[in-house]
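Help wanted!
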Amino acid sequence: MANITLIKAVNEGLRTAMQSDPTVLCFGEDVGPKGGVFLATENLTSEFGEERCFDTPLSEDGIVGSAIGMAMNGLRPVAEIQFQDFIFPAFDQIVSEAAKMRYRSGGQYTVPMVIRTPYGGGIRGGLYHSQSGEAYFCHTPGLKVVIPSTPYDAKGLLIASIQDPDPVLFLEPKALYRAVKGEVPGGEYTVPLSTTRTVREGQDVTVFCYGAMVPVAEKAAAQAAEKGIDVHIVDLRTLLPLDEDGVLEAAKRTGRVVVVHEAPRFCGYGSEISALIAENAIEYMEAPVKRVTGFDTPFPNTLEHHYMPDDRRVLDAIEEVHQF
Amino acid sequence: MLTVIEADGTAPGYDPGLSKAELVHVYRTMLLTRAFDDTCIKLQRSGQIGFSIPNRGIEATSVGSASAFRKDDWFFPSYRDFGIPLYHGVEPVDMMHNMYGNALDTSKGRQMPVHFSFTEPIRLVSISSPIGTHIIQAVGAAYAFQQRGEDRICMASFGDGGTSSLGFHSALNFAGVWKSPVVFLCQNNGYAISCPSSKQTASESYAIKGEAYGVPGVKVDGNDVFAVRQAMTEAAERARSGGGPTLVECVTFRMGGHSTADDPSKYVPAEEMEAWAKRDPIEILERALLKSKVLTKKKMEALKEEVASEVQAASKVAASTPAPALEQVFTDVYEEIPTHIRRQGAQAFDLAKRKGDASAGDGEFPL
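Answered by r_m:
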């Protein structure tokens, strides 16, 4: 066990996967000798050689499109998109190609690959280094969408994603890269996809969150506890395919639900959680589901702290559904 | 522009490197391609299938190209490439199953007609509808060959319109940098649906587009199957021997609509169509085969009848094959069916059962 940052856990996860499976490759812009702009692939080129960890031309379409071809032909590519904000030239490849290949070929061709990309705000990155685009991808059958919030999960979910037979979009909360540390085992272990994690047990209000919003929810829950509100926190970890049963069970437990995400509210992931509960557990609910989200505006730079849900906003929502 | 077969049918100084039987196979595959095309258009016109993509006029490009590759190479075709699978031994009936979208379609009735996918006898990678997406995938698949040190190669086929796509640019750029064992086939058939080349590019040719990426470009008479074969063979050999990618532009003409939903008389001048009709790729090859005495006219007629009945028999089998079962909507999204899709499948199956939908099959939702 080592006490390491989330970005180091990503690096460890990649190294472990590359050691155990010679078909695993890492590539993208500045991923090679530099080790990536956030150092997720640090030292992998020197350890595994240029053929397995390398720089590509500056083309997200090219990175993902070539990864699809590699994955169909026996390799396990882990492609990095430098910022999730830059992924959209590859949207066609992800949505029309990777996600549909198994289906449209009747299982003849499959795309076991991972696209890793840092997402989210909190680093003064403005419109194009801060976005949370998970909802675009969660609307895509055939794709898996995974978001860790702790170093332990980052490594375990990443290895599970690399071993998964289907394409996985692995969204890394860049605000947490160096902000959180945790115990991470050496060697190979996996955290199964499509399972939620109970962050905190509570009886009064359930908060669903993921990625960088998990520590925010924890902070709000600690403040709520001082006011006598016992908050239950669930880290969704895999947004697609979602552990629906786990979500419904946690919602029924308290009958009062808050969903937190950085992405804009309209058609955001919170809408799906809210609808899932409304359709399947309405009789257990004591209050309307409350969403705490980014605003339905582009992501601002200087005033990002107003845009991103923080403990004040989450606490407000917890109190509101508790008092309803 | 490379042309081999002269107007009188001679091919001076050219050796296709094919036995007589192989030459006949090239010719027969071009006939089979045309018969398959004609039949599909008739089936669409009579309402038996929903859609097809005319292949008339491009048979030499498609078959000549296919002939330059080995069976263990990977093919990333366009949707106007009947000749590639047919040349390498995919049975017309297996393609016809896709035209009908029936239970034996490899896509399980999920894709439109002409979107083939095969793993045997060749790797013909599932065809997409978005233009150009497969070109860069071919470069990735070729990277896997490079990494494993195999001497197999990839080919990606696309139209003139495809050269404007993001995937074309990414593919040529990556392939140039990686020295990929890939051959890019640009089938310049004159029009991207209704848009002529003048609206597609200001380049003097499509072949020249390779130059900026460090990829050699070759322009070929796409209606001359020997010229196509020669250029593609050189390109395939370069790729296989570590020399990197080549862009081959085959200049041909689509003697029909973009699809069965398109009326080319609205945008193709009649004189242009007439001029190309005089350069029919099958007739050009026939002149060469007659001149070199590989085949007689009588034998050619017999082959035409043979392929026509082969395609007819294939369409009969496909027509009488049932539609896919309802469960095929819900499988192959992921390797394992997730809970939410399983629930949706059960609901759909339950509804079909209650409402008496005959196509849903019998019994419980099996998944």
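OP: Thanks! One thing I noticed: The mean pLDDT of chain A is 98.
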